Amino acid sequence: MSGREYPTHPRVGVGVILFRGDTVLLIRRGSPPRAGEWSLPGGGQELGETVEQAALRELAEETGLAPEGPLRLVDVVDSITRDAAGRVQFHYTLVDFAAKAAPGEAVPGGDCIALAWTPLAALDGLGLWERTHAVITKAAAMLRCGSV
């Protein structure tokens, strides 16, 4: 068991909803929870880091990219995974930000085993966690309003 499994308290995680035109950058997770699933670039906040610093670091580690401008807070969601016995196996408080992508080529790194610029219209067929789909939809609405 890693220190992330069966925690004694929630861990803080960050995610970045990165847009390029009408596409969003998704990564395929390499580690639990949600290993093998499409998700947002992100990961755990480290001691001494602000959530924005963690988001920028994780984005760079997993994709090699940076935002074009400032990160915008989209939402804070809870991710609690229980094992077959009902015990909390993973518990994250996730802070999700949105931004437009700066120029550059995305390259998988860190916990990311694959990545894809995905049209917003194609999200329904990917089996995204419902909360991930919801924050992408919310961030896309913010983008249309000019808040991202």
From TrEMBL:
One of its GO terms (molecular function) is hydrolase activity. Residues 9-141 form the Nudix hydrolase domain. It holds the Pfam family NUDIX. Its cofactor is Mg(2+). InterPro entries: NUDIX_hydrolase_CS, NUDIX_hydrolase_dom. Keywords: Hydrolase. It comes from the Bacteria. This is NUDIX hydrolase. It comes from Elioraea tepida.
